Amino acid sequence: GYMHVRKVERELLAEYEAMIADLSRTLATDGYDRAVEIAALPDVVRGYEDIKLGNIELYKTRLRELGIGE
User: Fold this and answer.
1) Which of 10, 11, 29, 62 has its CA 20 to 30 A from that of 43?
2) For residues 33 and 58, is the Cβ–Cβ distance under 8 A?
3) What is the pTM of this model?
């Protein structure tokens, strides 16, 4: 379990960095609030093991609601 969580964390970090880079290239005044909300979403990803994995699902769901990701 521990190794799986760490692998997922590393993948999320790479995805987040790429997403923020994309957002910053296309940032406009009318999308500022959305960009700030997206940038703050990693605060949702907290906890240990299964709790963190559950919170990652909440994070990904919220990203999809904001039009980012799968």
Assistant:
1) 29
2) no
3) 0.80
